[in-house]
Amino acid sequence: DTEVTQTPKHLVMGMTNKKSLKCEQHMGHRAMYWYKQKAKKPPELMFVYSYEKLSINESVPSRFSPECPNSSLLNLHLHALQPEDSALYLCASSRGSRGSTDTQYFGPGTRLTVL
Amino acid sequence: QQQVKQSPQSLIVQKGGISIINCAYENTAFDYFPWYQQFPGKGPALLIAIRPDVSEKKEGRFTISFNKSAKQFSLHIMDSQPGDSATYFCAASKDGGTSYGKLTFGQGTILTVHP
């Protein structure tokens, strides 16, 4: 099973709302990732968790707050977002072997619209 | 140095034809080159990948050709089918250190296969 699940599939929120995106995998992977993808663009890395510790933050604004409660779950907490934050948010996971061939498996994404 | 340049931006092929997508990189530290396929509304899925110690890798109708001296690699889709219509991203990664977990993506190619 190489499935990464994400909820919700779609989310519409106002600029003053607080919401969370959820990601789950049951492949025993120890690395999990958040990406942001705008239309017709490649995914942009936001955060990497390795063994439940934040290992990479790509200078993401603090209105995005990641959380990794355990090795299977990854959350992205959203607060005071801007309309330009509207995008497809992708979660991915990998074994966490630290090698370049550590294949990342992506979830279907959450389509976020900020009004 | 971190860029991966992908061409063409879009490609239209007749059913049964060969689709060719090219990528070029500058950073010789990259040592793993995956291709991802993304359908509308879905997350990217790993299609095929290659390491620079081989010049070609074939999986079914999909072949990666790799030219280490030219720092170029390409995806060939033989007998292209309408179901292959998707966006294709080449990517590159390198071992460990502060680059752990980072995929450098090309800009993507939108492939349309006409019946």
Brief rundown of the structure:
The complex is a heterodimer of chains A (about 120) and B (about 120). Chain A has about 120 residues and is mainly β.
Question: Could you characterize the architecture of this molecule?
Answer:
- The complex is a heterodimer of chains A (115) and B (115).
- Chain A has 115 residues and is mainly β.
- In chain A, 0% of the residues lie in helices and 56% in strands.
- In chain A, the strands form 2 sheets. In chain A, strands 2, 4, 5, 6, 9, 10 and 11 form a 7-stranded mixed β-sheet that branches. Chain A has a 4-stranded antiparallel β-sheet with strand order 1-3-8-7, with no helix packed on it.
- The radius of gyration of chain A is 13 Å and the shape is globular.
- Chain B has 115 residues and is an all-beta fold.
- Chain B contains no helices and 11 strands.
- Chain B starts with a strand and ends with a strand.
- The mean pLDDT of chain B is 93.
- Chain A binds chain B through residues 4, 31, 33, 40-43, 45, 48, 50, 55-56, 90, 92, 94, 98-109, 111, and chain B through 30-32, 34, 36, 41-46, 49, 51, 87, 89, 93-96, 98, 100-103, 105-108, 110.
Keywords:
heterodimer; A: 115 residues; mainly beta; 7-stranded mixed beta sheet; 4-stranded antiparallel beta sheet; B: mainly beta; 6-stranded mixed beta sheet; 11 strands; 51% strand
